[in-house]
Design goal:
This protein is α/β, with parallel strands linked by helices. It folds into two domains: 1-30, no CATH class; 37-475, Glycosidases (TIM Barrel), CATH 3.20.20.80. Helices cover 38% and strands 14% of the residues. The protein has helices spanning 3-13, 50-53, 66-73, 90-103, 115-118, 128-144, 159-162, 172-187, 200-208, 220-244, 266-281, 284-287, 300-304, 311-315, 365-375, 404-422, 465-475, and strands spanning 43-47, 108-112, 147-153, 193-197, 249-255, 258-261, 321-325, 329-334, 343-345, 383-387, 427-433, 452-455, 460-463. The strands form three sheets. The protein has an eight-stranded parallel β-barrel, surrounded by five helices. A three-stranded mixed sheet has the order 6-8-9. A two-stranded antiparallel ribbon has the order 12-13. Helix 16 packs parallel to helix 17. It is globular, with a radius of gyration of 21 Å. It binds beta-D-fucopyranose.
């Protein structure tokens, strides 16, 4: 890829960068929400990821992951030049953090496992200390009555496997199967809720196409290969969990953004369909048994080149639920010179809505449209919102964090989830990203997504106003 091409595609796909420039949101304009409105089986929780919270990057036999490597050796790729070496120190503080979840009435905790703790060589020898750590975390959850929801992979591939080509190497399917087999066997008796991947549409293009996330490649060929291998791993991982965990509730998660065309010019309508196929359907469609969305995204032919006989069937898996992860929306217009998608985003700040600290547009109706869209897939049995939330700059004043914008964001998005549910959409859960402020990848520690504030110098946790609201909401069944 030329530098020119890279600049164009990263500008088109990049979501971050803009600072907030809006006024404080009005508090609680929408009518009050009640937990009971969502039904008694609705799952409520908060979400995290290993690299973003654990720290202890080289303790107890853990090896280097691509994120350790990226933050240590390609520092300029992280806006603040920070890393996850310590993060929220969850590795040492998991007990008090899980106790805090219980105190806040949070019924479920979504977290990921670090492959590098379990299999430091990527495959082969199992590291008992790594296995033991997650047993302690899970046991603590069960003791506090907080249901553990495990994500097998949230972006932290062992560096040793990246050195062999990472997700662009077809052997990654075999490596991943081995890893999932080990964890499903280790924890399957205690944990019933499993997610295979976190957001393939983030880690594959950001890591292999535009190079802003680990492992930092800017390479079309690696990207196309990695897409197909990761698609294959959805089916592979799902089947291994099914075979090993009795009574498992198996899902996987996809990032998605509602896409609008800038106007109704036919070229822009087609551009929106292409962007939608790329952003929302590239992984979801094949995993749902529909193949790659090539009618709307001709570039799929470069991916299909890597398919082998029998792959079509193996890509699909009958998931019990699909995790929908949404933050923002995209408004696009045609721009032929952008590779693959031939579209460009209208800058969110031009859309007239509030903007978060990530530069993302606040657009609650987006989640409603996405829920309706997912609901129309006949192979989606159940939808769980496995991530939703917002970064806004927070301030601790007299021991309190009055995060009115985040609170409003959560209420407004939840109101749209309820609207969809009332219209018959089979949505059955909602996890806030995130339990506590943590390491936000290439953005460093600056964007704060937590409903609990983390003071990274002292590791003190402070429940924000949004967290207090959530615990009250959860208390009143
Ligand atoms: C999602 C990621 C999660 C976090 C949030 C803000 O795309 O899954 O780890 O970074 O965005």
């Amino acid at each position: 890829m030329t530098r020119e091409e890279w600049l164009r595609i990263s500008a088109a796909l990049s979501l971050g960068g803009l600072l907030p420039n809006n006024l404080l949101a009005e508090l609680a304009t929408s009518s009050e929400l009640h937990r009971s409105d969502f039904g008694k089986d609705f799952v409520w929780g908060t979400a995290t990821a290993a690299y973003q919270i654990e720290g202890a990057w080289n303790l107890d036999g853990k090896s280097e992951s691509i994120w350790d490597h990226f933050t240590h050796h390609r520092k300029a790729k992280i806006k603040t030049r920070e890393n996850g070496d310590v993060a929220c120190d969850f590795y040492h503080r998991y007990e008090s953090d899980i106790e805090l979840m219980r105190q806040m009435n949070i019924p479920a905790f979504r977290f990921s496992l670090a492959w590098t703790r379990i299999l430091p060589d990527g495959t082969g020898k199992v590291n008992q200390k790594g296995i033991d750590f997650y047993h302690r975390v899970i046991d603590k959850c069960l003791k506090e009555n907080v249901a553990p929801w495990i994500t097998c992979y949230h972006w932290d591939l062992p560096q040793i496997l990246e050195d062999k080509g990472g997700w662009a190497n077809r052997d990654s399917i075999r490596w991943f199967e081995e890893y999932v087999d080990v964890i499903a066997k280790a924890y399957g008796d205690k944990v019933k809720n499993w997610m295979v991947f976190n957001e393939p549409m983030a880690f594959v293009p950001l890591g292999y196409l535009i190079g802003v996330h680990a492992p930092g490649h800017i390479n079309f060929s690696k990207f196309y290969k990695a897409v197909h291998n990761v698609v294959m791993c959805h089916g592979a991982g799902g089947r291994i969990i099914r075979n090993n965990v009795k009574g498992a509730n198996i899902g996987t998660t996809f990032s998605c953004s509602h896409v609008d065309a800038k106007n109704d010019k036919p070229a822009n309508t087609r551009a929106a369909a292409r962007a939608d196929a790329f952003i929302n359907r590239l992984f979801l469609d094949p995993v749902m048994g529909l193949g790659y969305p090539k009618a709307d995204l001709p570039a799929c032919k470069h991916i299909e080149k890597h398919m082998q006989p029998g792959d079509e069937q193996l890509m699909a898996f009958d998931f019990d639920f699909v995790g929908l992860q949404n933050y923002s929306r995209m408004v696009v217009k045609k721009l032929a010179l952008i590779p693959i998608i031939h579209v460009v985003n209208v800058p969110p700040k031009k859309l007239g809505h509030d903007i978060t600290d990530m530069g993302w547009e606040v657009y609650p109706e987006g989640i409603y449209h996405l829920l309706k869209k997912y609901n129309s897939y006949k192979n989606i049995r159940k939808i769980i919102v496995t991530e939703n939330g917002a970064a806004f700059p927070d301030e601790v004043v007299n021991g309190e964090v009055n995060d009115v914008k985040r609170l409003q964001f959560i209420k407004d998005y939840l109101a749209q989830v309820l609207r969809a549910k009332r219209e018959g959409v089979k949505v059955d859960g909602y996890f806030i990203w995130s339990f506590m402020d943590n390491f936000e990848w290439a953005e460093g520690y600056r964007p704060r997504f937590g409903i609990v504030h983390t003071d990274f110098a002292t590791q003190k946790r402070t429940i924000k106003a949004s967290g207090k609201w959530f615990s009250e909401f959860l208390k009143n069944q």
